[in-house]
């Protein structure tokens, strides 16, 4: 990991370093290891050294000296939908609001799934990559569990599998020190509601945030996961992975993949909020149906975070947490 990650870990205030972890608009920190002999999941990606490989060039441009970077996936709705600030603006602002996170902006790669979001990325002078979606997959907001939403989630899974097959580890949201950096476990994944046991397969997972190490086991996992796409009509990729984890012969027994489930105390979300604002590393806009609702409730989180940060010694922590009610997201299901 790069020096930014270590400085966060060594900083006694890192527990209150918040980046907004957005469902469908997530971060992905990737660390280069050794290229796998296993070919990519699709034919889109070739070796990073190939001059005809735009993804390889984009990864190299955004990476640190030790080849670590952050990737976020964005579409038109995330750069245009709703009143100011947009989802993208909230996301970028989070790097400035977090403790010790500003330098990470230099290593952010935006993966745009349509021309409007790609043009916006270029206008902001960020590192950008254009990811192609299946026909009718670009553009407007993909409402939760719509056919287009499910298709985009599977395309995201395929893309991340391709990245993994290149020999990259990735953190699918942000690089904070609550994640284990040893060689085990292979997969660390967020939960909608944490059951108290970080190794329990009963935890309901959320694929908006996870860290995966590149090895033969995890590459096989992503291949097996993606191969179930056409036999999982009406299910999103998260549901399929959840079933793979919980089934009788779990992915550990079948593929040797060791999974750690992340505590919502640190990786907070709208499904189950943290009990301690001083422990939070991320806030995830899960359990929310529309982008407008996500933006509305994340704006509340940002406001509360600014207030807390300016007077952290005297603020009533319980009052701050109580005000994170996520009213707009709750109403988005009505």
UniProtKB/TrEMBL annotation:
UniProt key word Iron: no
Top-level lineage group: Eukaryota
Annotated Nucleotide-diphospho-sugar transferase domain residues: 104-298
Parts of the chain that traverse the membrane: 16-35
UniProt KW keywords: Membrane, Transmembrane, Transmembrane helix
PANTHER family the record matches: EXPRESSED PROTEIN-RELATED, OS03G0731800 PROTEIN
Name of the protein this chain belongs to: Nucleotide-diphospho-sugar transferase domain-containing protein
The species this protein was found in: Linum tenue
Biological classification of the source: Eukaryota, Viridiplantae, Streptophyta, Embryophyta, Tracheophyta
């Amino acid at each position: 990991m790069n020096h930014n990650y270590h400085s966060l870990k060594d900083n006694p205030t890192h527990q209150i370093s918040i980046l907004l972890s957005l469902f469908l608009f997530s971060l992905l920190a990737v660390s280069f290891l050794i290229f796998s002999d296993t070919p990519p999941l699709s034919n889109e990606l070739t070796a990073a050294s190939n001059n005809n490989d735009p993804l390889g060039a984009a990864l190299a441009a955004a990476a640190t000296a030790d080849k670590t970077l952050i990737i976020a996936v964005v579409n038109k709705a995330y750069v245009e939908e709703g009143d100011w600030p947009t989802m993208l603006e909230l996301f970028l602002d989070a790097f400035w609001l977090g403790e010790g996170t500003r330098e990470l902006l230099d290593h952010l790669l935006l993966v745009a799934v349509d021309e409007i979001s790609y043009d916006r990325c270029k206008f902001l002078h960020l590192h950008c990559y254009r990811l192609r979606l299946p026909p009718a997959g670009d553009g407007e907001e993909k409402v939760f569990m719509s056919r287009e939403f499910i298709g985009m989630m599977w395309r995201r899974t395929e893309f991340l599998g391709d990245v993994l097959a290149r020999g990259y580890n990735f953190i699918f949201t942000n690089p904070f020190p609550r994640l284990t950096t040893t060689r085990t476990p292979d997969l660390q994944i967020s939960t909608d509601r944490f059951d108290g046991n970080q190794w329990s397969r009963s935890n309901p997972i959320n694929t908006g945030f996870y860290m995966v190490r590149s090895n033969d086991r995890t590459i096989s996992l992503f291949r097996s996961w993606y191969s179930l796409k056409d036999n999982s009509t009406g299910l999103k990729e998260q549901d399929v992975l959840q079933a793979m984890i919980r089934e009788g012969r779990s992915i550990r027994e079948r593929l040797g993949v060791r999974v750690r489930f992340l505590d919502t105390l640190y990786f907070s979300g709208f499904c189950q909020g943290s009990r301690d604002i001083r422990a939070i590393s991320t806030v995830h806009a899960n359990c929310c149906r529309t982008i407008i609702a996500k933006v509305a409730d994340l704006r509340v989180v940002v406001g509360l975070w600014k207030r807390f940060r300016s007077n952290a010694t005297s603020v009533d922590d319980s009052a701050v947490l109580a005000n994170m009610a996520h009213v707009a997201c709750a109403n988005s299901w009505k």
